[in-house]
């Protein structure tokens, strides 16, 4: 896990989409949001959680791994950048490779776009736009120690399992303290669906 | 003040300088070229695109929307135009913003802005753009004609609680001094007047008892009738902060909102039964010996009577009325009363009722009986819907109040204000009527002319048919606005006025903390400030000497003097102090006074005897009775992406995209499928909405958000019954039924502004998480 990173705490998310709006305001992709919101138990609950780029580390992010044009750069501090516009050919391999459903393709421009952890902000110690504005702290930017100082006893996970493969990520998820297991099921930190244990 | 050189000094006089900026202590080599941080750091990208050509200034100000009043910076380009927002580390919000706050800046230079006065001599004609002189002359001639024919009180004024306090002060003064009419009121009447009335009765002061930061210190937080997550999203950080410290959370709401979802106890009571519920909670507190008798003996009056009334509400009785288990009532009583420190916050959910004042009093009785008052982490508060819902009534915009919260019926108060205004006491009109009552009077031709400032009753008042008839009956109607609202479209004259970013002034947030908004850009050509328009109308009406204000600062200085010595004392608050401190809570009687964030710390209230005057509360059923044809409750409220009547937010692309239309939220037990058209019928009419089927609502209740005009307007269905004391409409409950319908009557799409609505097509890498007809933010169900 990186030093300072985003922590996603779905228990706090109120589904307000401030993160989505804030992401649209980011100078590096103004007018487009690189975040989407999932509703985990539609029709029964208002529960929601945001998905940002998880900045995978295993051993290099799947999107970067499959990119035929080597357009996706991973920085020394583990940030998976959005595709380099001079190299990206808009083939959408990254879209298909990403286990979290993050990258988007601008069909007109034939360019990939994705969250780059607001590199223009984080390079200066500013938090990414989404985590800055998130009214609830469902998106938190800082170190795990800072998170734990603010929220005593909080448990996080940064390894997710998808079938046979395990992905370690730079962005971490808050998971219920009594349900921590390593690694957590991929994509969402879901341990129960409709009362049924879905961990295998 | 911050040391960030991009931040403009709001105290600097004159138009903002757009010259080169001071050096920024950042190393450009660290920033990726082409990024803003790179430019801010003074770096020169490879294409020689020099940073100075793209210089921007950040102007510190606050959000124009809800009563949280989040701090933000507006980003201003070299040409002096607002073009973006940047989070601001202000105590209230610590950088956080909700989607409304983030997108608010887009209305400043929105293509729909009105930039010339619009006029027509009758409602049959089309509007034409006219000069300011023509519009003002016509308005003044109509005011004079109506007042000379029918008397001064035949012309009314309706203000708004999104205006700066300076302007709300002017609205009150303009009505009484320039129009010489008793008929002035404001749309804050639809907001927190029930809480205000209750607080005044119980404590002799009309504001929340504690600052938001006290929430972080409490052990038990009770939230009644407030969808905090959607209506005041940034306040959620305080709620979660309390949870992090182990505080328990009790939420009273017929819907399982985002806050209710994680509560220790969520009481999903039937709309309109809140006082029965709180009386029963008090009953249990008394039965179980959990009252704080020492506190009550020393600090309260009326306790014996309140106690006797509570005895009539055993949990079994209230459980039946409220449709919740009696055990929950017991649980709430124990959790709240046993907590070392407990707080209660409420909002429109318990206030928008024909017994809104009583509901708030019932909460106050509970706080008083358990001694949870006036301590860090213990107390009560009401969360304001509009940015200046609190400040908007403090200085004389409300029909029965004079500046400083003085009563217009009180001889001494009248004398004091007449002295400041330089008029004879005989010239000061008596109290007028409330906003809804004024509309009824318009319908009865008792009020023949009206000026509306910063309000949109066509969407926001209940019983649309009556409202429309009222406005259509007026002989003359002028409206101040910066977009052509549904109400402005009915007017004879529309004055194009400034947005919050084009003027300076103060607002008081839900904590009664006065904050300063700063001017970020000059108004577009043709647009004037509301202050200028009011002063100019006053001059043409012959009262120019009483309205010789050059701008907000001069008005504020008169307001400070007019409030001096009252409970709502602003005397010690100055623009300079506000900028230095980030906000001061009133009362603040002197320049060296730190303000009063928390009330009653010395155990004294603002009544002369220093005590809490507890009031007996009795439950009575809602005004619109249930019968076989109307067996369900209709309740209304907000959605996170929109604000009040939607006049502002329904034009902002991201917000429209987030929540394009209203819906009727119903329980799966009715057999509807998600997105299917459902007709909601009340005694006022019927409208068709897409169904949002979810278990997160009571089976006997329907919820519709109210931000849209007819044909999908919640307020075409709601009842115009009023609380007898606060005169707030009963928006939160009326009888209804639901039926299958053929199709949904679409609301005409709002005028789309390029760059504000449609974003270039982007292929999303997964299916859209929302079903096509479902509004975001509420869980939906396909199960039938
Ligand atoms: S801003 Fe925060 S609370 Fe709102 S939707 Fe995004 S993650 Fe959830
Ligand atoms: S919470 Fe209220 S004040 Fe804060 S950004 Fe949202 S609307 Fe504006």
Automatic annotation (TrEMBL), chain A:
Any one GO MF annotation of this record: metal ion binding
Lineage: Bacteria, Bacillati, Actinomycetota, Actinomycetes, Kitasatosporales
Superkingdom classification of source: Bacteria
Provenance organism: Streptomyces brevispora
Record protein name field: 4Fe-4S binding protein
Keywords: 4Fe-4S, Iron, Iron-sulfur, Metal-binding
Annotated 4Fe-4S ferredoxin-type domain residues: 4-34, 79-108
InterPro entries: 4Fe4S_Fe-S-bd (IPR017896), 4Fe4S_Fe_S_CS (IPR017900), ET_IronSulfur_Cluster-Binding (IPR050954)
UniProtKB/TrEMBL annotation, chain B:
Coiled-coil residue windows: none
InterPro entries in alphabetical order: Asp_de-COase-like_dom_sf, MoPterin_dinucl-bd_dom, Mopterin_OxRdtase, Mopterin_OxRdtase_4Fe-4S_dom, Prok_molybdopt-oxidoreductase
Biased composition (Low complexity): 1-25
Source organism of the structure: Streptomyces brevispora
One GO CC term on file: membrane
Domain 4Fe-4S Mo/W bis-MGD-type: 56-112
Protein name per UniProt: Assimilatory nitrate reductase catalytic subunit
Keywords carried by this UniProt record: 4Fe-4S, Iron, Iron-sulfur, Metal-binding
Pfam families in UniProt: Molybdop_Fe4S4, Molybdopterin, Molydop_binding
Disordered: annotated span: 1-42, 386-405, 745-784
MF-aspect GO terms: 4 iron, 4 sulfur cluster binding; metal ion binding; molybdopterin cofactor binding; NADH dehydrogenase activity
Keyword 4Fe-4S: yes
């Amino acid at each position: 896990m990186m030093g300072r990173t985003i922590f996603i705490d779905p228990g706090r998310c109120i589904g307000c989409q401030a993160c989505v709006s804030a992401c649209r305001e980011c100078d590096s992709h103004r007018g487009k949001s690189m975040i989407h919101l999932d509703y985990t138990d539609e029709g029964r609950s208002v529960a929601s959680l945001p998905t940002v780029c998880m900045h995978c580390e295993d051993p290099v992010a799947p999107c970067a791994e499959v990119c035929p044009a080597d357009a996706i750069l991973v920085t020394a501090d583990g940030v998976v950048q959005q595709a380099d516009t001079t190299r990206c050919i808009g083939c959408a391999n990254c879209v298909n490779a990403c286990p979290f459903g993050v990258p988007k393709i601008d069909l007109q421009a034939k360019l990939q776009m994705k969250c780059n952890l607001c590199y223009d902000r984080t390079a200066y110690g500013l938090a990414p736009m989404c985590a800055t504005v998130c009214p609830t702290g469902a998106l938190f930017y800082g170190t795990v120690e800072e998170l734990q100082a603010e929220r005593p006893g909080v448990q996080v996970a940064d390894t997710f399992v998808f079938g046979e493969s395990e992905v370690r990520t730079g962005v971490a998820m808050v998971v219920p303290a009594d349900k921590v297991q390593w690694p957590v099921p991929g994509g969402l930190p879901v341990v129960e669906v409709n009362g049924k244990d879905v961990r295998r | 003040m911050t040391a960030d050189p991009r931040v403009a000094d709001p105290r600097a006089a004159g138009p903002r300088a757009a010259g080169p900026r001071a050096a920024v202590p950042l190393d450009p080599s660290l920033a990726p070229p082409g990024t803003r941080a790179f430019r801010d750091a003074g770096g020169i990208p490879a294409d020689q695109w020099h940073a100075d050509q793209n210089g921007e200034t950040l102007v510190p100000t606050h959000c124009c929307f809800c009563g949280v009043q989040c701090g933000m910076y507006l980003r201003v380009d070299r040409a002096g135009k607002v073009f973006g927002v940047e989070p601001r580390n202000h105590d209230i919000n610590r950088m956080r913003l909700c989607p409304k706050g983030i997108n608010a800046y887009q209305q400043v230079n929105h293509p729909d802005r009105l930039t010339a006065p619009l006029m027509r001599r009758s409602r049959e004609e089309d509007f034409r753009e006219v000069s300011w002189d023509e519009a003002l002359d016509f308005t003044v001639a109509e005011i004079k004609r109506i007042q000379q024919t029918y008397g001064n009180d035949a012309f009314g004024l309706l203000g708004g609680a999104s205006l700066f306090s300076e302007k709300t002060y002017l609205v009150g003064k303009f009505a009484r001094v320039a129009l010489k009419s008793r008929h002035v009121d404001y749309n804050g009447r639809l907001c927190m007047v029930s809480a205000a009335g209750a607080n005044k009765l119980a404590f002799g002061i009309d504001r929340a008892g504690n600052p938001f930061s006290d929430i972080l210190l409490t052990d038990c937080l009770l939230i009644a009738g407030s969808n905090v997550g959607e209506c005041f999203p940034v306040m959620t950080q305080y709620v979660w902060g309390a949870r992090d410290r182990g505080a328990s959370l009790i939420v009273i709401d017929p819907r399982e909102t985002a806050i209710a979802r994680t509560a220790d106890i969520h009481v999903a009571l039937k709309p309109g039964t809140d006082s029965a519920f709180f009386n029963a909670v008090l009953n249990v507190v008394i039965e179980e010996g959990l009252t704080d008798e020492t506190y009550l003996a020393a600090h309260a009056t009326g306790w014996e009577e309140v106690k006797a009334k509570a005895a009539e509400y055993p949990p079994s009785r209230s459980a039946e009325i409220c449709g919740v288990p009696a055990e929950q009532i017991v649980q709430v009583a124990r959790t709240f009363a046993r907590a070392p420190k407990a707080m209660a916050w409420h909002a429109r959910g318990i206030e928008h009722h024909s017994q809104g004042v009583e509901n708030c009093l019932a909460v106050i009785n509970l706080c008083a009986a358990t001694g949870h008052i006036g301590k860090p982490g213990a107390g009560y508060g009401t969360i304001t819907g509009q940015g200046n819902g609190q400040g908007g009534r403090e200085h004389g915009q409300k029909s029965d109040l004079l500046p400083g919260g003085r009563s217009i019926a009180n001889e001494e108060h009248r004398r004091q204000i007449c002295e400041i205004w330089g008029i004879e006491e005989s010239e000061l009109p008596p109290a007028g009527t409330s906003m809804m009552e004024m509309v009824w009077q318009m319908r009865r031709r008792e009020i023949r002319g009206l000026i509306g400032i910063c309000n949109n009753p066509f969407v926001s008042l209940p019983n649309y048919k009556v409202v429309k008839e009222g406005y259509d009956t007026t002989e003359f109607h002028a409206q101040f606005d910066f977009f052509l609202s549904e109400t402005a479209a009915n007017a004879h004259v529309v004055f194009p006025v400034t947005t919050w970013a084009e003027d300076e002034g103060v607002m008081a947030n839900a904590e009664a903390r006065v904050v300063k908004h700063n001017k970020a850009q000059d108004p577009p050509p043709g647009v004037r400030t509301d202050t200028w328009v009011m002063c100019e109308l006053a001059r043409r009406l012959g009262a120019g000497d009483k309205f010789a204000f050059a701008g907000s600062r001069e008005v504020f200085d008169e307001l400070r003097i007019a409030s001096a010595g009252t409970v709502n004392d602003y005397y010690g608050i100055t623009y300079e102090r506000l900028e230095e401190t980030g906000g001061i809570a009133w009362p603040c009687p002197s320049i060296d006074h730190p303000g009063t964030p928390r009330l009653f710390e010395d155990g004294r209230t603002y009544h002369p005897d220093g005590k809490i005057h507890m009031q007996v509360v009795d439950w009575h059923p809602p005004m619109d009775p249930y019968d076989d044809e109307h067996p369900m409750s209709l309740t209304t409220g907000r959605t996170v992406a929109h604000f009040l009547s939607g006049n502002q937010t329904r034009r902002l692309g991201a917000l429209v995209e987030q929540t394009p239309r209203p819906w009727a939220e119903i329980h799966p037990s009715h057999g509807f499928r998600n997105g299917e058209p459902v007709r909601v019928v009340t005694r006022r009419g019927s409208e068709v909405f897409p169904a949002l089927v979810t278990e997160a609502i009571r089976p006997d209740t329907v919820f519709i958000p109210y931000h849209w005009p007819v044909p999908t307007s919640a307020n075409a269905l709601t009842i115009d019954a009023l609380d007898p004391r606060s005169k707030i409409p009963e928006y939160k409950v009326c009888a209804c039924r639901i039926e299958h319908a053929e199709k949904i009557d679409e609301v005409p799409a709002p005028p789309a502004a390029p760059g504000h609505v449609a974003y270039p097509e982007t292929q999303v890498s997964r299916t859209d998480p929302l079903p096509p007809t479902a509004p975001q933010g509420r869980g939906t169900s396909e199960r039938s």
